[in-house]
Design goal:
This protein is mostly beta strands. It is built from three helices and 28 strands. Strand 2 and strand 3 form a beta hairpin.
Length: 384
């Protein structure tokens, strides 16, 4: 990347931190951008009692299904193909799939239009369901706790966080911010939020989100992940006035008990994502076409120790997420998905399917969001 290009990218970011450094048009769209496209096609409204009634009907199996694409059998690869099969799942709830998260043997599915939160068993049957406000953003399941959080946008533009108990009973609604929220994770009863103006958290007794002070930086926090092995948060921060202008994004870790910060690697990435699988830490994003897009970090020092062989295949960038046993890597063209060994970076299985969020559970079983549907992946060599 030339010095002139670097200076232009940094200048754009510092001028307006909400402007992210974009890859070529059409290569990648974030979760928020996709959801925004869906929102523009619908009326702004709150989910009221009708959504709750629908939820009860789903659990009892009596809900009427909105037309959806007819589920297809597995698209079996040809004998010479290296790619795995997949199929579209039958409609589960009444809305469009936004996010799916695995927690043990269960999946949590967030839908929009209408808003719905569903808990699915390994056969994708709804065992719990509750109506949630429309205009949902994301879902966070508490690691080490018993809560579930749904982020949504009020008609006035304010991002709200609604907490639910493990039995799907609403607990509280907490204002977050009228600024852009990029990511959210939950740990030990607290919700942590990556925003354009820093890292925020909502504690058990908080009535609004609070900026986390004293982290030694000023800038945008873009990606968050929970490291359950070390019981900490890992996050990326865009640093104003970075020492190395070619790598303005830095990976740090935060101990939520002591608020101690581990300062990690500075990387030349944008649109970054973090995944932690069995203690192995991975970061991916978009950048210059000749640069690396996927990094494996030392789990204690957060310094770069390697990459994955799939890095050569991802085009302008990559998105990583953590599975039950595997690292999931989506390529920057939104057309291919890889199952990767989280310890070695070796490719275990690949699919030609445009899923943009994957969750896997024991079985093994893996499903992904291909809006407005869910798809199930045929696993052969991938432990999920």
């Amino acid at each position: 990347m030339s010095q002139q290009s670097i200076e232009e990218l940094i200048r754009d970011t510092l001028t307006d931190p909400r402007r992210r450094l974009e890859p070529p048009p059409g290569h990648y769209q974030t979760v928020g951008e996709r959801i925004g496209r869906v929102r523009r096609r619908r009326n702004l409204r709150w989910a009221g009692g009708a959504a709750v009634v629908v939820a009860l009907l789903i659990v009892s199996g009596l809900a009427a299904a909105r037309p959806r694409p007819v589920p297809m059998p597995y698209l079996q690869p040809t004998p010479s193909s290296q790619y795995g099969g997949w199929h579209t799942l039958p409609q589960i709830g009444p809305g469009e799939a936004v996010q799916v998260v695995a927690d043990g043997a269960f999946f949590y599915l967030l839908e929009d239009s209408p808003g719905m939160l569903l808990k699915l068993d390994g056969n994708f049957g709804a065992v719990e369901a509750v109506g949630v406000p429309d205009r949902v953003q994301s879902l966070a399941v508490d690691y080490g706790g018993n809560g579930i959080w749904v982020l949504y946008t009020r008609p006035d533009g304010m991002t709200m966080a609604r907490e639910y108990s493990g039995s799907f009973a609403p607990v509280r609604d907490v204002p977050v911010s009228d600024k852009q929220v990029f990511d959210a994770v939950a740990l030990d009863g607290q919700l942590w939020l990556a925003t354009v103006v820093g890292l925020y958290r909502i504690g058990p007794s908080d009535t609004s989100a609070r900026l986390v002070p004293g982290l030694g930086f000023a800038g945008t926090v873009y990606a968050l992940a929970v490291d359950p092995v070390r019981h900490r948060l890992i996050y990326t921060v865009w640093r104003a006035g970075a020492v190395d202008p070619s790598a303005p994004m830095q990976v740090n870790a935060l101990d939520p008990a002591t608020m101690a910060v581990t300062v990690g690697a500075a990387l030349p990435l944008t649109k970054e994502s973090i995944a932690v699988v069995a203690g192995h830490v991975w970061v991916a994003g978009f950048g210059n076409g000749t640069d690396r897009h996927i990094y494996q970090l030392d789990p204690d020092r957060l310094t770069v120790i390697g990459t994955s062989e799939v890095d050569k295949q991802v085009g302008p960038g990559a998105v990583v997420s953590g599975g039950y046993h595997s690292l999931w890597v989506r390529d920057g063209t939104d057309e291919a998905l890889s199952c990767v060994n989280p310890a070695t970076g070796a490719i275990q299985q690949q699919w030609l399917v445009g899923v943009w969020m994957v969750a896997s559970a024991p079985g093994p079983v893996a499903i992904g969001v291909n809006q407005p549907n869910l798809v199930q992946l045929a696993l052969d060599g991938c432990p999920g």
